[in-house]
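note to self — DONT lose this again. spent like an hour looking for the file last time. sequence + predicted structure for the chain T wanted, 162 res
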Amino acid sequence: MKPNQQKSMLLIIVIGSLVFYSTAFASPDADKSSAKEEVRAAAIAFNTAYAENKLDDYFAFYVDDATLMSPDGSIQTVADYYAEWKEFLASGGGVDSLSSYEPTSIRTSADGLSAVTYFTSGTTVYVDADGKETGSDTAETDIWWKIGGEWKVVHIHYHATD
């Protein structure tokens, strides 16, 4: 092997080793911490859009085939949920107040590409077109995936609270 080839080979080995060791021993907690903060910010923006009745901003967080499960176990598609909310808002109804915008806990996957957020019991007050208020007390679990660099909701499960 010629001296220039030896130098090139050595350089490739050194660079390859540096790349391997810098990724193999990188702290997964750093990635998870970053993912948690991204998910926290997305969840707060998601709930803010909901509380402010910003239909398109709120639904922009969902993937097209997302599902929602209510406390009784029924499952609704995001398309049906959108149509329901659009009609409710058009009638003059909407969210009047939301007691919790920030998740109680966030769990992220090791690769930082999926997360679960949990919201403890909170009260959402709705107002209909006639100004009548109704309240809903539920806890909520949201499943998030990072798609194209953005956090998206793929499933929500509402839990009844006692």
